[in-house]
Amino acid sequence: MPKLSPLTNKLIKEYSRSEKKTSGKEDVIGVDEITVRVASFYEKIRGIIDWKGEHLLKRNAIERIIKRRIVSSITLGEKISSIPAKPLVTDLIRSGHFENNKIQLSRISEVQEALDKYVYIINNLSLAKDQQSFSFYYWLSSVAACEIEEILSRSTKERALISYMYNSMKEAVETDGEISEKEKNILFYIAVQKALFDLDPPIISYHILKYEYKNWENPSKEDLKKITKTILYTKKRIDFFLEHPFLKKFYQLCRVYNTPYLLIGDVLKEDPKKGEEILSDPQKAEKEIEKHYEKRAKSMKGRLSRAAIYATLSIFITNVAALLVVEIPFSHYINIGEFTLLVVAIDVLLPTFLMVFLVVTISPPPERNKRKVVFETMKTLYQSEEIEKHKIKTPKSKKTFLYYLVSLLYMISFLVSVGVIVWLLSLINFPLLSYFIFIIFLSLIAFAGTKIRERAKELHMIEEKEGFVHVIMDIFALPMLQLGKWLTIRWKKYNIIAVFFSALIDMPFNLFIEFLDQWRKFLREKKEEIY
Fold it and tell me: What is the pTM of this model?
């Protein structure tokens, strides 16, 4: 009978360790249930407005609170006073991001130490008040939010699975010598995180900071001084790797081979001890892997639908706002085109129907894909003398005449795509400004939908052949998707409605929640006096 590999045994131990409960009953943080319901509803609205993935909503809420305090102090030219941890944690529980009466009271001191570290770094950095410095403060706020989320909800299993995939495949990955071994390892480590859990730059930056500074989580005074002196240089290095032109090659490899690791994690997640017993027996392991494969395939549709709803609602709300505030007034002023019921329906609903179409037409992986996944998972679990090598050919930077010719054809296909859309809209007398806004929202939805379809391939390990129709469609669709990608990056950076919520609604709402909480406490005290 084959034996589990040393790395698999190590993973099982990490999962078992994370299941151990602390002895004794610890005090926990509790808030009023009524305020939790009210604040949770508001956070759901914020989630739609901010257009973040489900796995980022919790961290985004932490980030907003920290940024509000840091940016306001820096704008006023003041040093940042200590950011109190208890109100921050209480707000997060009220908002429904963490369970009520579940977080130990002792975690507040850990959060406070982490916040004090970031406040020290910011207060002791000498940066001019320009766009670059604010960009750094925003980045550091995002990293701080990652660390606080880590303290409040330990991701031990997630980190263990990342380490498992990284160490299992690291030696098997070969490059053609264009980059050093250290660069290869860092790029592969980033790609593993993105492929397994779709982690974004802030959380990856946080993991790299912990790698670069061994005492990042518990620094001494001397460590803090050293971190403050070198953190700007470290950020530049992190940005270099996150924007590295070879990263996408590593990511493509990891996206193909991430499925076996996700399924192994699923088997161990509920009960590591029972999971070890199952995985030690190849026959039981094969059946369990097949079961979790089917379970993931079924749950995927729901996760993708929720992602589509969040993305579509965010763009839909902004589209309606643009229609009422910009398009209709502009059309009356210029008097070119007319807002009929048909024009409004096409302007607002067509991008939405495009998203629905892109999600509904996602097809499940074929049966032969399951056989391939089970085979690769069994190879990963058990010791093997043979190591399958994965050669990564790094892209050449030399640009030939043919490259420029293809780029020109790509630009022409974009102009043709836009031209066809404009021509079709002109047939129904579309208003002048609405041409541009319609194309913007159409490209945003097309890109978001394509990203969701890409996430649907998380179980795919076999390459799907594309027909002639797909090739023709790509020629005209890819330029629009590229525009959508470019706009999406700026959308997340300059989401006007999100800024409006933060500036005019967040603070009054937080004051209202605080008042509601105090009022509920007051009523409870009065009831106690009566009874």
Answer: 0.75
